[in-house]
Amino acid sequence: MVENGLQRYEIGLFRKLAGLQPVTAFFMTTSDPVLLELDRARAARIAGNHGMVRVCARRAVGAAAGENAMAVLRRISGTITIPHHVRLRATMLQQGLRAQLQGGSVSDDPIADAELLIDYLRSNAKD
Asked: With bands split at pLDDT 50, 70 and 90, how would you rate the model's confidence at 18?
């Protein structure tokens, strides 16, 4: 986890509840928006806010691509030349509570899905 940078946000309460840091640690900083969103997703998971976990995981993918998260996920899931397992993760990460209530497939681990998609985007980025 990056402990320096410019962008700050409060996650001390989540970390305190999880026993990850002392009470006095109220800020974690990072200048990488991808790491910021992934850390927010982890904090939301600790707090039991599964919807926010999905939102932050999606945002991390969008930050890695430099564009709107849902547009990136739709593009990945609809591009036949992208490996099937990557497209499947993008499709599942798009789904939310409504899809789950209707019996659809949703991501069991949005953070892991986001990390896979980010790795794919970074390894296939055009210089």
From this structure: low
**What is the CB neighbour count within 10 angstroms for residue 5?**
13
Q: Tell me the C-alpha distance between 32 and 48, whole Å.
A: 24
Report whether 5 contacts 30 (CB < 8 A): yes
- Domain-by-domain residue ranges, the chain? 7-123
Per-residue model confidence as pLDDT tens digits over 37-80: 999 999 999 999 999 999 999 999 999 999 999 999 999 999 99
Q: In whole angstroms, what is the distance from residue 42 CA to residue 77 CA?
A: 24
